């Protein structure tokens, strides 16, 4: 065989090894997430799952399909209400596990979206610790990128939130600011 054939096989082997590594990481993420649930919560979820499966078996499919469609429509209405109420519309989320032990997990999250008309991207690390069957979470390494709106106070606010890793205050404050930003924009357009 010639060298190019061997190289093609080597490339395929490396691609498969990378795929195996990624699948192993995903499996470990899923397996580790189940550790943070109590036995009672797992049993309730299993009961609900098996109850749903037995319900599907008892129906002819048409009734369960209509029930699922009704539930989906209800969830879409709830999501639409929450988006209208808060102004947040998330467009993407990614999560990568950086460290995992039996009692602690460190994950890097990236969220992108809009709050009213202001685009934002938030990156942070989340440290989850399991102590006496209770999970506590700590946000660190917060990085916030927002579209430029020319307001130095917003830049100072974002810097302060990054410094204190205060994700909840950021989301609460940016929601109110973005709503009033929209009102100001419409008002100034009215006078132009």
TrEMBL record:
The keyword Amino-acid biosynthesis does not apply. This is CENPP protein. Pfam families: CENP-P. GO terms for biological process: CENP-A containing chromatin assembly. One of its GO terms (cellular component) is chromosome, centromeric region. Residues 6-33 form a coiled coil. PANTHER family: CENTROMERE PROTEIN P. It comes from Sterrhoptilus dennistouni. Keywords: Coiled coil. The lineage of its organism: Eukaryota, Metazoa, Chordata, Craniata, Vertebrata.
């Amino acid at each position: 065989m010639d060298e190019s054939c061997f190289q093609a096989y080597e490339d395929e082997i490396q691609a498969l090894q990378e795929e195996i590594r990624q699948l192993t990481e995903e499996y470990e993420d899923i397996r580790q997430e189940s550790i943070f649930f109590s036995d009672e919560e797992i049993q309730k979820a299993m009961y609900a799952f098996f109850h749903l499966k037995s319900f599907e078996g008892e129906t002819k499919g048409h009734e369960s399909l209509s029930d699922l469609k009704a539930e989906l429509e209800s969830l879409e209405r709830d999501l639409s209400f929450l988006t209208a109420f808060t102004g947040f519309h998330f467009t993407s989320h990614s999560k990568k596990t950086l460290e995992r032990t039996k009692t602690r997990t460190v994950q890097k999250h990236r969220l992108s979206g809009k709050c009213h008309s202001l685009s934002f991207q938030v990156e942070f690390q989340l440290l989850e610790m399991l102590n006496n069957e209770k999970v506590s979470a700590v946000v660190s390494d917060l990085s916030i990128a927002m579209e430029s709106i020319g307001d130095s106070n917003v830049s100072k606010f974002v810097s302060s939130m990054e410094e204190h890793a205060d994700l909840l205050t950021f989301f609460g404050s940016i929601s109110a600011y973005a709503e009033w930003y929209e009102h100001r924009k419409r008002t100034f357009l009215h006078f132009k």
